[in-house]
Amino acid sequence: MNRFAARLAQENVVLRHARPEILQVNVGKLCNLTCVHCHVNAGPKRKEIMSRETINRIIHWLARTDIPTVDLTGGAPEMIPDFRYFIERVKKLQPFRHVINRCNLTILLERGYEDLASFLANHKVEIIASMPCYTAENVNAQRGEGVFEGSIAALQLLNSLGYGIESELPLHLIYNPVGAFLPPSQAELEADYKRELKKHFGIVFNNLYTLTNLPIGRFASYLWHNNKLDEYMELLIQAFNPATIDGLMCRNTISVGWRGEVYDCDFNQQLGLQWSRNGGSKPLFLWEIDPDLLESREIITGNHCFGCTAGAGSSCGGAIM
After folding, report:
1. pLDDT at 271 over 90
2. How many alpha carbons lie under 13 Å from residue 64 in its C-beta half-sphere?
3. Does residue 194 belong to any structural domain of this protein?
4. In terms of C-beta density within 10 A (0-12 exposed, 13-18 middle, 19 or more buried), how is residue 192 classed?
5. How many whole angstroms separate alpha carbon 14 and alpha carbon 84?
6. Number of domains in the chain
7. What is the CATH number of the domain that holds 218?
C-alpha cells in the first residue's frame, strides 16, 4: 500500500516534474567503503559501473538540453574508469554546465587517485562530501575504522587547493544521522561543524547539508536487524510536512542509473522504480526521451518518500525548509 500517495491525495497534490535543472547520474555501485547508512548497498566488490558507451549517449542527450547542472554520484563515482572522461566531456558542452561530484573524501587518498583532487579543482568541480559527524567515534561507527582520520586529511588537502575558500571551488559537507532519528536543525548543526572543524583541524567549508536516512538498502537492513524498521517508518510518517512538497528534489531532477535507465530520484533508482514505456515493464533509457516532454510528468512515489517530507524535509541539497 502506497501510504505516501494517499497522504498526497489528502493534500490534493499530484506530484509532477517542474523544469529539469539537474541531471543526477549514478555511475555505479563500486565504492572503497561499506557504510551502514548506504541506500545504494555500495562496496568494494560491486561490479556495476557505467561504460564509456553509456557516458557518450548521456552526453549526446545532454547537449540537446539546457539543463545546467550534472550531479555525479555512486558508489564512489571517482572509481569508474571513465570518471575523468565524463567530466571533461561535460565541461566542453555549450552552454556551460556545472558539475557536482558527491565524494566520500577517503577516495582522494587511495593509491592511484593521488592527483584526483587537483583534477577536480582544475575543472572547477563542486564537491559535496559525506561527513556524518565532526567526531571520530560517530564517523568511524557509521563508515568504518579510520574513515574519520582519512576524511580530515582529505578535507585539509581540498582546503590547500582552494576548496571552501575560493568562490569557484565550493565545498559542502553532508550530515546523516547515525541512528533511527531525524536530523537536527541544519543551521545550528552547520555552526557546530564549522566551529569544531576549524578549531581542531583548521578546516573550512561552505555549507552543511542535513539528509534524512531513508529506510531502503543497507540502512533498512540495519533497522530490520535492530527491530526498528516499523518504528522508524512511523516516525517519518508522523513527521510529514506538506510545506516541503514544492522543494522536493524529484521535482527538478532527472536521475539516471549506471546503464542509462531513468528514474525520478536516486532512492527510486535503488528500489527499481524506473520509468517505463507506456506503463509496462520495459525500462526507458535517457536517450529515448524527448527532453521537451519532461515537464509535468507525474512522479512515481512510495512509502520511502516520507523520508524526504519529514520535519524540515530532505533533498540532495539538504533541508528543504
Report:
1. yes
2. 13
3. yes
4. middle
5. 39
6. 1
7. 3.20.20.70
- 170 contact partners, CB below 8 Å, separation of at least 6: 126, 127, 163, 164, 206
Q: Closest by alpha carbon to 55, among 102, 89, 20? A: 89
Please check whether residue 259 is in contact with residue 286, taking contact to mean a CB–CB distance below 8 angstroms: no
- Give 140-170 pLDDT, tens digit per residue: 777 778 889 999 999 999 999 999 999 999 9
* Rounded to 5°, angle at Cα 212 from 109 and 140: 35
Cell for 190? Answer: 552547520
Query: What is this structure's pTM?
Result: 0.95
Q: Would you state the cell numbers that stand for residue 63, as one nine-digit string?
A: 547537449
* Residues in Cβ contact with 274 at an 8 Å cutoff, skipping those fewer than 6 apart: 257, 261, 262, 263, 268, 283, 284
What is the residue whose three cell numbers read 555552526? 191
Half-sphere exposure (Cβ direction) of 287: Cα atoms closer than 13 Å: 12
H-run or E-run covering 24: strand 22-26
- Contact at 8 Å (CB) between 67 and 108? no
